[in-house]
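Risk register update: the risk of archive-format incompatibility is retired. Evidence:
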Amino acid sequence: MPERRTLPYGSWPSPVTAEDVGRAARSHEALTASDDRLYWIEERPEEDGRAVLVGWHDGACADVLPPWTDVRNRVNEYGGGAYAVQRGTVFFSDAGDQRVHRWDPGAPPRALTPNPGQPGSLRYADLCPLPGARGLVAVRERHGRDGIHQDLVAIGADEEAEPLVLFAGADFCSSPRPSPDGRQLAWTTWNHPAMPWDATTLWLAEVAADGGLRDPRPIAGGPGESVVQPSWSPDGVLHLISDRSGWWNLHRWHDGRLDALAPGAVEFAEPPWEFGYASYAFLLDGTVACVHRVEGVPRLGVIPAGDGTVREVALPFRSFKPFIAVVGDRVAVIAATPSTTAAVALVDVDRGSAELLTEPDVLGLDLVPVLRPVRATAADGATVHGWFRPPHHPDVEGPPGETAPLVVRCPSGPTSQSRLRLDLAAALLTTRGFGVVDVDYAGSSGYGRAFRERLDGAWGVADVEDCLAVARALIAQGLADPRRVVLWGVSAGGFTALAALAADPTLAGAVGVFAITDLAAFARSTHRFQSGQVGRLAGPPPRSNGDLGARITGPVLLVHGDRDEVVPLAQARELADALRERGVHADLLVLPGAGHGFARSEDAATAARAELSFYARVLGLAPA
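Archived output:
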């Protein structure tokens, strides 16, 4: 074998490029099954982020709808549940007009919901077919002069008509799910200032002969309990996920009571930022297939009928999206490994084998570092989890006695968790001689309700302490250079990264991507769905950008879209100006036409190049 070269960390030549990072922005979402077919949404950055409905049947994948369609909605701004399929007929919400359309093979799509007077003022999400081809139920969001309101509606299947209102009166609605015989409907609601992972109520009602609801009644949930993902088994038993035990466990409701199927320190759900999550599904024999997390680690498992334990399915996948579906006797998932990006896969849970239906991005195993778990003790005594990717290159090593620069990445949300999959943005760095660690800080999901609630009233404090604790743990192990630690975060994680730089002047810098920089302004301007969250997390009164602008002393890179409707560009501009006035280095990269996230390949690639340049400058590196 050729002798390995010795080069300074951070300057190694790498085959991974910024363009590779941009191409990896393609994603798969919203996996469902109908009859013996699978469907999912494919977001294509090469088509300006268009959401394409893809179908799979008998070994072949194909785009389902005409090329002008963009299958997405803007309910709660984050959308989800934008399509449903019944007997080959597709119902979908289109990004252009937010109306619900029907498409039948061989015919052009036609609208089923009225054209509102104001474009986009009526939006529909969580589309779910009613049994017997009687139409569908959905969450409708109405934008008008009197504010924004949500209700549950029934939409006819055949022609354009005003939907029938089924339920109204709550601030938010979600997950309308009819029983297999169509005689009952279950759904969830919640009210400000709660988020759906804080407190929701599960409702059940009889479906009347005219299609309306009779005797709606709450059956689970309430203050201090989050109930999500109601679903009916084929034999008509209502199931749900509740965190009444402190963990999002799967339950069965019958005879007026809830029974946990597999109780324990296991999380069967993720925070529903979008509609349509489904992390469990039923096989024909009554077995429940489920995606779940144990100590933050995602797994695929099955709960045999009549059993109370989860049997793990041994597969190389280490990351799963919160979507699962059943086709025949196989289970479909969107999954990834540490050396591949996410792909749609069909799994034989008995044999423990998987067939990939889509082609993932793959990085050679010689370029993929082994993920290492990191544990650190937080200031309040809690255990903080992280996942470390050490610098790794098959042909290069660092100088003896030298330690590598470290990029500490703060997930978004702030309820997100680390994804144990091939991450080309991380590989861009590890193959150049950087260490990268993802931190599941206070508020992250996957560790139970108490860990999520650690961030209540402590945003910008507990999350910062957790990230710094993980960085210190790696430094103590000789895995990172204490003088070359940079924080990176996106959205809420961007605020954490910037707040950490403000708290610890020994840090080398921070990168904020679509970052919240002003909590007070964010509380005033953010959309309705998230408007109650800031007060809960930050505590009264929310801190302003003057806090960060006055306290940060290290260099900053801000990356922001000029069409970001979640965190307006003005926040990034104001922070950059405040820092520059004090003589602090602040770069601001504005991505024209970009919203709150990388929808286009070129935007992700541009940001990756800017980050490499920023790291080289603030860490004193000489890139290859």
